[in-house]
Amino acid sequence: MNLHEYDVVVIGSGPGGFSAAVRAAQIGAKVAIIERLFIGGTCLNCGCIPTKFLWKSLKVKKEIQGSYRYGIKSILEPIVFENIINKKNKNITSIRSGMKIILSSYNINIFEGSAIFKNKNVLIISNNEKNEKFEIYADKIIIASGTKPLIKNGFTFDGVRIINSTDALNLKKIPKNMLIIGGGVVGIEMATIFSGFGCHVTLVERANFLLPNEDYEISEEISKNLSRQGIEVITACTNAFDDIGEYEKILIAIGRVPNDGLNLRDLGINITDSGFIKTNEFCQTNISNIYSVGDITGKNLLAYSAQHEGVVAAENIIKGNKFSISNFAIPQVIFAMPQSASVKVLDFEKYKNVIFGKFPFASSGRAFIENERTGFVKCGIDKLTKKPLAFWIIGAYSDEIINTASQILKSGMGHISRETMFHPSFSESLLNAYEDAFGKCVDVIKK
């Protein structure tokens, strides 16, 4: 076999692997990336980007239908869903090309194929399509191989009727009806998109309410919004797999599992019972020259967390363990219609004297202008110090507002003041919710 030698080799080119490779090259390392499928990983090819593109397509549809509210008359032509999918694919291809250009600018070599560990420094790369097999030596290795959809025992994804989220994002036409099993983020987003384009959707969740790890008030509001949009929501459902005969498509979105096949157990890398790689605060595994980032570590399965970990891992693997991962305040967003988002300090549950404020978008001048009056901002505050600790938002632009909320928490700001917030804006609702907790909000009626 041919042997290629590098300072750092990264397995996987998703957000974690890509950022790790680029940062390592910026520091001066000779770097290679190994990618089994497509540059960009799950996020670009079958996750964040395509989902949000379809969501935006649905939003544009609704905006055209509601243009009369602004004195504009418009007619919506019949929608050909395949055209939307083709546009989505074109955008993905463009972004992927841009990522390749960035990698090339740093002289990072891309190897197409599957990797398996021969030992802690040597990887065997196989590409069956090209009938290639070769070895790569690396002084340091970063594993960013990601995850794949989980399937219930006794079922298999056939890509036709029983599908996963990847399959759903490539359907060329809207099915007559669809059963979505799993009331988490993926299930809710898929239900929103397909229902919005005319599919009759039934969304089922085993827990007593959707998003069992989310704030209950947010979960309830999302459930109500889904129902208003014609989605049948069933919670506390223990027999979802028993009656699937009446549905054209069954989308299973019950979680994700690690991409395996790297020979990790034989190598001796510590992994969890579920197969996720164990790492310390520096993204390092128990084998000193091997680090791991992103979904494969099973920590929070968020693209932006993976990006952060990738940069930290690259710094540490080359310079020594100087930087640790901070999970102090990590925002999370759900692209329902409207969106919802939340962020809270890592030790939020430890605070005993928490008070809450709430501001409805129905009282927001900007929301009135935008005709986006559904939803609210909720704020959790330490009563003793008056320090904001958490924000929950459901409503338009919450995916953008949450970044401001995250920075407020991250900064340790003791309070929020009016002069820092532009009016009229959606983000000033953070201030209004904060002030409401103390009975000082002047934009809501007296309670």
Task: Provide an overview of this structure.
This protein has 447 residues and is of the alpha/beta class. It folds into 3 domains: 3-149 and 257-319, FAD/NAD(P)-binding domain, CATH 3.50.50; 162-252, FAD/NAD(P)-binding domain, CATH 3.50.50.60; 332-436, FAD/NAD-linked reductase, C-terminal dimerisation domain (Enolase-like, domain 1), CATH 3.30.390.30. It has 12 helices and 19 strands. It has helices spanning 15-27, 41-46, 48-65, 81-105, 165-168, 185-196, 216-228, 264-267, 303-319, 365-370, 398-411, 428-436; strands at 3-11, 31-35, 109-112, 114-117, 122-127, 132-143, 147-149, 162-163, 177-181, 200-204, 232-234, 249-252, 256-258, 290-292, 332-334, 340-344, 354-360, 376-382, 387-394. Strand 4 and strand 5 form a beta hairpin. The longest helix is centred in the first third of the chain and has 25 residues, at 81-105. The radius of gyration is 24 Å and the shape is globular. The N and C termini lie far apart (76 Å). The mean pLDDT is 94.
Structure in a nutshell:
With 447 residues, this protein is of the alpha/beta class.
Keywords:
single chain; about 450 residues; alpha/beta; FAD/NAD(P)-binding domain; Enolase-like, domain 1; 7-stranded mixed β-sheet; 5-stranded parallel β-sheet; 12 helices; about 30% helix; about 20% strand; globular
**Morphology:** globular
Poorly predicted runs of 5 or more residues:
none
Percentage of residues in DSSP E strands: 15-25%
CATH architecture descriptor name of the largest domain: 3-Layer(bba) Sandwich
Radius of gyration: 24 Å
Instruction: Tell me the helix content.
Output: 25-40%
- Given helix and strand content, the structural type is alpha/beta
CATH class of the largest domain: Alpha Beta
Number of helices: 12
Overall number of strands:
19
Mean of residue pLDDT? 94
Give the CATH superfamily of the largest domain.
FAD/NAD(P)-binding domain
CATH topology of the largest domain: FAD/NAD(P)-binding domain
Largest sheet descriptor: 7 strands, mixed
End-to-end CA span: 76 Å
